[in-house]
Amino acid sequence: MRCVRRIGLASFAMILVLAVCAPAIAQKLGPDGAPNPTASVTSEQELLKQVPRAEGRIDIPDIKASVLIQPAGRTWDYFHEVLLHRGGAIVILGMIVVLGVAYLILGRLRITAGRSGQKIVRFKAFERFSHWLTAVSFVILGLTGLNVTFGKILLLPVMGPDAFSSLSESAKYAHNFTSFAFVAGLVLITATFFKDNIPEQVDLDWLKQGGGFIKNKHAPAGRFNLGEKVVYWLSLAAGLVVSVSGFVLLFPFFGTNIADMQIAQAVHAIVAVLFIALILGHIYIGTLGMEGAFEAMGTGEVDLNWAKEHHDVWLARMLASEDRRGQASATPAE
Amino acid sequence: MARMKFLCDADRCIDCNACVTACKNENEVPWGINRRRVVTINDGKPGERSVSMACMHCTDAPCAAVCPVSCIYPTEDGIVLHSKDLCIGCGYCFYACPFGAPQYPKVGNFGSRGKMDKCTYCAGGGGAEAPGSAEELEKYGSNRFGEGKLPLCAEMCSTKSLLAGDGDIIAQIYKERVLKRGYGSGAWGWMTAYHEGVEI
User: What is the ipTM of this complex?
Assistant: First the structure.
């Protein structure tokens, strides 16, 4: 490479010049006695050591343009393309594997005493609506969100660029608009189920008895057991974080700068991936994992034996209040 | 194979914005959009420097890496082009670009952004349009590169501070300048864009 030899020669010459002129440069005068124009300039490397972004004055109204160089862009690229891809795959696929193993070992948790044929109302219509509004929104948001990160790896090779771009464009709009339904649902769920999710002593007893996963051990619980309460509070926290960060992403540079937007996206992505893993567990236990669980949210009514086995404290309270009111809350199955 | 780059000599740039105007005119860039802009560091203070910045056409372009629909790609000459047909306007390329090159001409609902637009090195576009055609001109701007010409911004620079061309050649020009005059604040953006500086 000729350049290397030339660079070598040039740098030697420069060092020689500098050695001769060192005193002159120190005095802020150039070799010809005129002021040295480089004397007080900040080189790019110096500048970026002091501040994260090199910013200056611009002649156009677009404030974002005042950032000359933000090297953090490459860092965010590394986060999104490497860390998020690996982390996301590990967390989500890992969760699916864990659930698969759980199913292989435990199987579908049966109602030990078998179905009684009698039912009791567990969730009223409004409660079910709140849940399903949030749940359906979550699934749409989750899938469209995952498409942004993983779509080009999983779907693009299969669909081809034109179809995949069309799909991704629609997915982007679906994601943006469905987010409002999700927030509304989240607010409803938070308000509706708040008082039944406050931690109680019975939750510790439930935990000590193995949470109902150990055969022949009865785990007592109120309306919601510790597992469900954990899902509630984690969902509230994660939902709040993705909603706030998502809102920032919906209105880019509305009071935020480039660093804020990168952080918002990173937070949104990380929490969303963990949230998806949490909800996969929730979906598993509410459908495949446990007999008699889905109808609670599906129809609103649960079998009496199921209630006795999994939420006995709640059942006792419901039957007691029914006796006081003199109304039957347990109806025979159709 | 020539590897195309930009080099702005910050010690010669006088913030005249001829490069900005030339680009806007040549590529019919819409109102409010600036593919190229001039930023002045330390304005009014000793050591004031102006740098003309557009897309640097990076090595390992971060914009291309993060694009969810992979619509950005480098050509053989190192020029980074993109397809406006595939772009979904998500804005990720702007978050990743260290130089703020991507622009979004449309303002839509919830940051919808519309199709991304950026400096194309006056080399047309990365879509399906025929090079040098009227459709390509309307969508992406001029294709001077296809005619063997360099970008107009560098050609129109009043002080020849903005250099465009093969990376080795313009680095050599800059080195000779710095040696001859005895000072130089460096090739701004080169370390971030090309993972290499210009050693003087």
Answer: 0.94
